[in-house]
Amino acid sequence: MLEQMGQKAKTAESALALSGLEQRNKALLFMARMLREEPQDIMSANAKDLAEASELSAAMRDRLLLNEKRLEGLAIAMEEIAALPDPLGRVLFEDTRPNGLHIRRVAVPLGVIAVIYEARPNVTLDAAAMCLKSGNAVILRGGKEAIRSNTALAELARQACRQAGLPEDCVQLVSDTSRESAQELMRLRAYVDLLIPRGGRGLIRSALDNATVPVLQTGEGVCHIYVDKAADADMAREITVNAKTSRPSVCNAAECLLVHRDIAGEVLPDIARALISRGVELRGDEKARALVPGMTPAKASDWGTEFNDLIMAVRVVGDMDEALLHIETYGTRHSEAIITADPEAARRFLNHVDAAAVYHNASTRFTDGGEFGFGAEIGISTQKLHCRGPVDVKALTSTKYVIEGTGQVR
């Protein structure tokens, strides 16, 4: 089955290469319109997925949920992606050599992109739209928890392609949600130019260990908030509460709070009360528990865990050096934040921390393609090649050199 899908994707890729920006944008706008005018099939499919997902945690069910507000958000994202400049054909370098050769480096599609993801059906349309915008065919393989939702959304995208005069196989969804289908897709070297795994540690590790196609590593987010000794107490509380509780199941949610010992007695009890009032379980070291009675003792494994839930590890640190060492040891190079009124402390933190996104006095929840003005993102890259941070449509392109001469020989 995947061999046939790969062949169809290659054929669709060729048609996409001949398409223009207007035609690709038309498909995106059709997707937005259908989300608003024909949401019933999607909502019905999602309700069935949710009905069979009762064993999932509340946070994971939240990932799975598609309601009117989220469908409208998807429609807006389709329109924002359509409004972006064409990522293809951009001249990234241009020079005329002494011998008269005119050389340009221009942006071109990657080709066929495979995306393996878990219980987040919004990824189906985000990935489809971004691949279409950047001239790439896409093979999607979602998780079993969202198979009905993903099927309905993929069919919407395929219908939009047909209406825009593009091959419907620009977007394909793997219906088999077994581990074997994921493994086979990871090895589809004859057809897949890039694999993007979007999910937890297990999925990322499986892709890195088993794929024979290039992998863009995304997403596990063990993100930290460091409250420096010069932090504003109210700001520290509001940012921490937002970073942990606004949507705890996503990769840019904060999983660990580090507080400087000089300010811990002043700010930690207040932050803890605010978090606990919102249902957060706090797991702290000995110093943190001395300031917040009733806090659960933290285990060694808690420091490097992406909880994806209303759970947060808490540690009191002696100074910034200890905070930086903790982040270096347990972070996943995703998003890290410092809360401080000291510009020198902020400068040191921002320069020292090795992560895709570093924040001063702002929530880690902003690490998102939409929030960065990209319309959407296909994942958050935590590696350094070929892109890092929110993977936008420009990151889904490669380059080729175009050389024009007048008969030159070497």
Head-to-tail CA distance between termini:
48 Å
How do the SSEs run, as a string of H and E?
A: HHHHHEEEHEHEHEHEHEHEHEEHEHEEEE
Q: How many helix segments?
A: 14
The largest sheet is: 7 strands, parallel
Which percent range fits the helix content? 40-55%
What overall geometry do the principal axes of the alpha carbons give? globular
What's the count of strands? 16
Read across the widest sheet, the strand sequence of neighbours is 10-9-11-8-7-12-13
What percent of residues are in strands? 15-25%
Topology, please?
Layout: H1 2-18, H2 21-37, H3 40-51, H4 58-64, H5 68-83, E1 91-96, E2 102-109, E3 112-117, H6 122-133, E4 137-141, H7 147-163, E5 171-173, H8 179-186, E6 194-198, H9 201-210, E7 223-227, H10 233-245, E8 254-260, H11 261-277, E9 281-284, H12 286-291, E10 296-297, E11 311-317, H13 320-330, E12 335-339, H14 343-352, E13 357-360, E14 380-381, E15 389-390, E16 397-404
